[in-house]
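subagent[fold] <- orchestrator: predict structure for attached chain, return tokens only, no commentary.
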Amino acid sequence: MTYSNISQQDILHSPYKNFLVDLDNTLIFTDAANNAAYLSAANSLGFSTLFSKHNQFRITRTDLTSLSESVQQKIIIQKQKIYHFFLNQTILNEALFQLLKNSNRDVFLVSNADENRASSLIEYHHLHDLFKEKIFCPSIPNKYEFALKRLNLLPNSVLIFDDDKLQLQQAAALGLQTSQLYLIGE
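subagent[fold] -> orchestrator:
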């Protein structure tokens, strides 16, 4: 599946009235902060070598599966507590931000991120006024299906911006055309 390249003119002149945008590594590049928080949390609990092979990839909860469930939870809770110390390692996708801000469209955040962490990112980057609504669905497999139903939007009324090909494939399965799907970061 081939996704559209961002062309500001095409997007600003598109007939789509609603923009759905992902947060992590789409609107805000968060890998460095995420990994630093995980490393710090693991180190503080005595697991300093746990992520040694992950210096170039995003650390996720699935990287903890070799540990007991109680240790996994301790690392996750500690990571959530200290994440705000690493917000300065996040980078706003300025091009996408400007496009969304100048679009005169309704912009909806649709994210699998934890709401507290996402809120701290939104506050840190002063994005409060960008979104008409924020939808957090950390345990929902198809976030765009969920968002379309919750917002009562038709698939032919939206453009979607995401860095995850699987999420965009799931959106396409809902009837969106590839011209409505923008892959960020490739």
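orchestrator: received. Logging for downstream: The CA atoms of residues 112 and 138 lie 4 Å apart. Strands lie at 18-21, 28-29, 91-92, 106-111, 133-136, 158-162, 181-183.
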